[in-house]
Recover the amino acids of this structure.
């Protein structure tokens, strides 16, 4: 399914480039790898977080994600109870140092390309649409993911990582850097596709069209196996609920999956 912002005309025929997010958008159905690691690093210091808390800041640079989690009142209360003091920036950095090697180890298990993505990207390329990408992962983390997905046939024209700009999402700097790499301007000729609010906001702040994905990403939060096992009526209801939340957050379009791109562009 494809959902549109009410009363807003979308000129997808004018799009010359697409910027894809990675986890939850084109790889790692359900955005499982980051969510698993964020829960685990807090567990390593004696604090159990909920899946919703682990997933809440998804899309941000990973150190910002940790910082955001520590700002949640419940987690901060648990931190004070555990350590007798409020968390500090040094604690953020310590957790991040724990995060990086653990995420590297887990990434190999969660870098499968989401079904339909490669065909959709090839379809876009065949029509002269440039294909770039941005990610909340650092370059060191993408160095793990990239060879895995390239062997499977997934290649983008550029990858801008969160540690290669002054600030990660929702700041627009990654989008601007990717637009420069692709040679596309004005920004309205770019479509940013992401599975997180932070990623959609980055696209908005850069002046791009934005599209969220409902079924494959962090908001659904299910592995492909678990999603496929849902009754069709529940799949549809959950996707509609997620689409509504993204449209309320300002996304111009919501797709079930990147695999729906050919259908979207056929409407132009």
């Amino acid at each position: 399914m494809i959902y549109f912002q009410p009363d807003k005309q979308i000129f997808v025929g004018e799009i010359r480039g697409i910027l894809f997010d990675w986890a939850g958008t084109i790889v790692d159905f359900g955005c499982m790898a980051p969510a698993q690691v964020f829960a685990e690093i807090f567990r390593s210091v004696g604090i159990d977080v909920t899946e919703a808390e682990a997933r809440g800041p998804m899309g941000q640079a990973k150190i910002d994600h940790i910082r955001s989690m520590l700002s949640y009142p419940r987690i901060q209360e648990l931190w004070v109870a555990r350590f007798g003091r409020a968390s500090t920036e040094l604690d953020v950095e310590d957790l991040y140092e724990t995060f990086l090697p653990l995420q590297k180890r887990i990434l190999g298990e969660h870098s499968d390309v989401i079904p339909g993505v490669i065909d959709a990207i090839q379809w876009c390329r065949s029509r002269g649409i440039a294909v770039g990408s941005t990610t909340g992962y650092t370059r060191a983390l993408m160095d793990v993911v990239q060879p895995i997905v390239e062997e499977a046939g997934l290649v983008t024209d550029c990858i801008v990582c969160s540690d290669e700009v002054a600030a990660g999402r929702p700041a627009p700097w990654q989008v601007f850097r990717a637009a420069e790499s692709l040679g596309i301007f004005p920004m309205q000729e770019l479509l940013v596709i992401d599975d997180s609010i932070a990623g959609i906001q980055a696209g908005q702040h850069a002046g791009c069209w934005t599209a969220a994905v409902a079924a494959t990403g962090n908001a659904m939060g299910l592995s492909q196996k678990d999603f496929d096992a849902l009754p069709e009526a529940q799949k549809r209801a959950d996707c509609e609920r997620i689409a509504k939340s993204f449209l309320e957050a300002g996304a111009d379009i919501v797709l079930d999956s990147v695999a729906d791109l050919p259908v979207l562009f056929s409407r132009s």
Observations:
- The chain has two domains: 2-32+111-266, 33-107.
- The beta strands are 2-4, 17-20, 130-134, 159-160, 190-194, 209-213, 253-255.
- The chain has a mean pLDDT of 94.
- Residues 33-107 form a domain with the DNA polymerase; domain 1 fold (CATH 1.10.150.240).
